Amino acid sequence: MAIYRIFPEKDTFIFTEAVIGNAGLDEIIEIGGYPVSEVGQTARALLKFNSTDIANVVTNIIGSNNYSASIHLSLASAYEIPTEYSLKAYPVYGTWNQGIGKYGDSPTDQSGVSWTYRLGNGTGNWTLPSNTNTMPAGVTGSYNTTYVGGGSWYTGSAGVNYESTQLQELNSNNDININVTNGVKAHNASTIVNNGFILKLTDDLEFNTTSSIRLKYFSGNTNTIYPPYLEFGWNDTVYSSTLTELSTSDVTINIKNNKGEYVDAGKQRFRVHARPKYPTRIFTTGSVYLTNYKLPAASYWGLRDEHTEEMVVDFNTVFTKISADNNGSYFDVYMEGLQPERYYRILVKSTLDGSTTVIDNGNVFKIVRNG
């Protein structure tokens, strides 16, 4: 297993309804293409994750393992969603200031990044084909002449594609979970400057005049349990154990070292005690009920919010695999990515005797604030 999450140091969205308006402290991030008075408008999201945080995760936690990195945003509300659409993410070209404005401020707040300006207060035009003689290699931006601005971004460099795509289909929950591994690796290697990412609809859905596509996500300023985050995933599974592998589907599985409460920092290793519910009787001086078995290699852990019953960490065949040694099966959870003052239920998924089973034995713990 290995899942680690970091939260953005700044996020916002830029929009054509107020081309110099800033929404740096808004509780919502919006992406969309919609008409206002029959004129097509667009909104795009900006998020930046701290370079030191990224370097710390890659160097000190992941180490030499290969990893994946994905941006997650939770949907707050949506309007006129197509049956199928795609979102794009690109590394941003050019620094930008978050600002302290909110969408709809009157008078319009100009303290930070907007559709027209990167830095706010009328300064720092985006690098665009319309205001520069030669665009930097591998960089592009909006070609819309009605609303000049909208950001500039890397599409690729040295044969590496920085464009990320997520397809949303009819039955999707429309949360964003978009793989930006190439961009994060380029940021960490200083191949490109870390100015974060821009997220947008595909070109054909922006400046829409026939439908009002508005996707609103919780921002880092939300008072909910759904802030955006960058999730790293890697496989650090070690499966080396002389214990007998559990094979029957009638089993008892418990977390034997669950303390019930943990601070929102550090790593906790959870030990799994697994055995047949009805062990075979043998002549022994000890109890057969104390004999520990290892789970099959195709076993995974997950976390579910005890109140909302949503999967906070879903089962993943690569990133939440359960390890095993001679003391039994185990997995590690990094507590920094979990919301404090919440209760989480540990679930185990495994294939036993030909049947895939999710085991829930009521193993719940609480995250409390560190200090």
Describe this structure in words.
The protein has 371 residues and is mainly β. Helices cover 5% and strands 40% of the residues. It is built from 2 helices and 28 strands. It has helices spanning 51-62, 181-188, and strands spanning 3-6, 10-15, 28-36, 39-48, 67-73, 75-79, 85-91, 117-120, 123-125, 139-141, 152-154, 156-157, 160-161, 164-168, 176-179, 197-201, 213-218, 229-234, 251-255, 261-263, 267-276, 299-305, 311-313, 323-325, 328-334, 342-352, 355-359, 364-368. Strands 2, 3, 4, 6, 7, 14, 16 and 17 form an 8-stranded antiparallel β-sheet that branches. Strands 20, 22, 23, 26, 27 and 28 form a 6-stranded mixed β-sheet that branches. The longest helix is centred in the first third of the chain and has 12 residues, at 51-62. The chain is elongated and about 75 Å long. The two termini are 27 Å apart. The model has no long low-confidence stretch (mean pLDDT 93).
**Gap between N and C termini, in Å?**
27 Å
Give the number of DSSP strands.
Answer: 28
**Strand-and-helix sequence, N→C?**
EEEEHEEEEEEEEEEEHEEEEEEEEEEEEE
Which shape, going by the Cα principal axes? elongated
Radius of gyration: 24 Å
Mean pLDDT: 93
Q: What are the key terms here?
A:
371 residues, mainly beta, 8-stranded antiparallel sheet, 6-stranded mixed sheet, 2 helices, 5% helix
At a glance:
The chain is mostly beta strands and 371 residues long. The protein is built from two helices and 28 strands.
Walk me through the topology.
Blueprint: E1 3-6, E2 10-15, E3 28-36, E4 39-48, H1 51-62, E5 67-73, E6 75-79, E7 85-91, E8 117-120, E9 123-125, E10 139-141, E11 152-154, E12 156-157, E13 160-161, E14 164-168, E15 176-179, H2 181-188, E16 197-201, E17 213-218, E18 229-234, E19 251-255, E20 261-263, E21 267-276, E22 299-305, E23 311-313, E24 323-325, E25 328-334, E26 342-352, E27 355-359, E28 364-368
Parallel strand pairs: 20-28
Antiparallel strand pairs: 1-18, 2-4, 3-4, 3-17, 4-16, 5-15, 5-18, 6-17, 7-14, 7-16, 8-9, 10-11, 12-13, 19-21, 21-25, 22-23, 22-26, 24-25, 26-27, 26-28
